[in-house]
Amino acid sequence: MNQIVDKTIASTVTTGGISSLTYANNLNNFVNGVFVLSVTQAMYPRISKMSIQSDIEGLKKSVNECLGMILIFLVPTTLGIIFFCRTYNYLVIWSRRV
User: Max alpha carbon distance in the chain (Å)?
Assistant: First the structure.
């Protein structure tokens, strides 16, 4: 539902608004899929085991470790995306037009 509303609004803003929104969504999905999901899938067995054993202190420690690892990956990735945004635009958007 959210994507329908986003695309409806983007279509009224400017020419190419929907394409820009789609590329931004693809980039966001890439980052989430590579970094966030891989870390959470690796930590999930430990977190669920501690939850079943009612080890609240261990659970807090594991969740903090998981969030720390996600931040360690996401901050440099975000800075890299910001720094290389023109290169990304050229490679992804303009290469499809040729």
Answer: 58
